[in-house]
Amino acid sequence: MKKSLFLILYLNIYTAVFWAADAQQLELKIEAEETVNTSLLDSLGFQSRFLDYRSLVAEADSLLLRFQNIGYIESELQMLRKENDSVHTARFFLGRRYKTIKIFYERTLVSEKILQKISQDVTETYFTLPFPKLSSSLQKLNTLVAENGDPFTRTSLTNITKTEDGTLTADLLINTGNVRTIDSIVVKGYEKFPRSYLTYFAGVKKGKRFSQKKLVAQNDVLNGLGFVSAIKPPEALFRKNNTTVYFYLQKENNNLFDGILGFATNEDTQRLEFNGYLNLELNNNLNFGEQLLINYKADGNEQQNFRARVTMPYLFKTPFGIGAELQIFKRDSTFVTTQQQARVTYQINPASSTYIGYKGYESSNLLETTVAGTPVDDYTSRFAIAGLAYTKPQNSYLFPVKTFLSLDTEIGRRELRGTTESQQRISVSAQHIFNLNNKNSIYIQNTTSFLISDTYLTNELFRFGGINSIRGFNENSIDASLFSVLNTEYRYAFTPSIYIHSIIDLGYFENQFFTQEERLYSFGIGLGMRTKAGIFKFNIANGSGTQQDFAFANTKIHLSLTSRF
Questions:
Q1: For residue range 188-241, what is the model confidence (pLDDT) as tens digits?
Q2: What 3-state class would DSSP assign to 53?
Q3: Domain that holds residue 110
Q4: SS3 for 496?
Q5: Structural Rg of the chain based on CA atoms
Q6: What percent of the chain has pLDDT over 70?
Q7: Whole-prediction pTM value?
Q8: Are both 319 and 419 inside the same structural domain?
Q9: DSSP 56-94
């Protein structure tokens, strides 16, 4: 009984309070010398109902400023009168609406190139702006001018005049301070950070003009190195005649261990076969930015590939670095090829690098008998090598590289049975991620390589196929004197740590030794996720070609886990 009485009492109090609050609502109406369009008020975010008189007055005053910001510069609030207990009317004088403003400027203070970023109508003496965008455009102009090394720049308009033809004109005034340059650079948190990466990889150099926006972008570049992360954005300390830039970095473990377990059905025996892949990458353990890579692959067909590479960037704090590589490839009992390489690299700018060097090949026929004209034979090759690379990173743990381009060339000679023959090898690789939004993206990659020679051997041809080439085919199972592979993925991210993707790969290759040409196709689906152990990837793809019909037995499944330690 008591509970029922309390419930009835509560409902009565709630109803009375709600009725009183609703009864006290105030309404604001707008008047002007001409009818104010309802759509115009909606675009200004006009609010017509209020709980108290103070909020109503504040809205009337705020509305006056909004009228002026869209071009009614002569407008004024003439009066605010009370119609009855709940309705108030604000009467405005609007006057003429000015839709554009012509701004005159001095070319010695600001360039046409900068003005074209805020205006579509720029001449040698003036530029025009839509009046509603005047404030935001001047703020953007102030930022653009400040990026040229003057962080204390202030822009404003003077001599605002109404012309006879109903337009507005003004003069652009730019108050500049002293142009600031970076005088010193301080790294906090990771004091042993290799400073050459600041200078050559990120492009932060003493004597360059100060730009806060550019510093933030350079900080993001450092953040993409892997072995370092930014604790917070960079800061600057301005003294009278000195500017000091502070980077806040911490060292990250960036050693990688990558393993792949794959299995597929043997086309001949119909038995399940396994293949393996191990990749060990040691990065920046000595605080020089050095890298040691050891890679080993083996499949169920007795195919083995070993690769070791060491890289030392920015020797003696210069943009020059060195690298050396050894690679051994063995195909069952047919042949073994050893590849040796040494190169000198040069960092052109933070995004681009180039190299020159030497590469040698030595291959041995493992067959018991050797007959002239067979596809496999002993040979030795020597090449001078050169190349270019361009990398654009992005702030993403799963996909740290947004754009990558590379060109590798080899020019040299092959010695075979006492004869010498000139050869050239050219490889081009390009990839890009089109970020549609936070969840959807499209990945495209193309790899093209070709060997130019008068004669060809199987054990000197390019080898491709597998999870890192055209998926749905066995690892390094296709020999080609020319090949081109297009990899595409549509990626959908459920969270920043989990995504699925499609697999659509297209390929074309030629084998000049067997006068063979074929087109390849691969379709499938994949899954990737960031776990505590590392990045886990699962791919399933089926490959076919013009000389290989589609069959479920050709489906390849690959699992990989990349761990950092």
A1: 999 999 999 999 988 898 888 888 888 888 888 888 788 898 899 999 998 888
A2: helix
A3: 100-175
A4: coil
A5: 34
A6: 91
A7: 0.72
A8: yes
A9: HHHHHHHHHHHHHHTT-TT-EEEEEEE-SSSEEEEEEE-
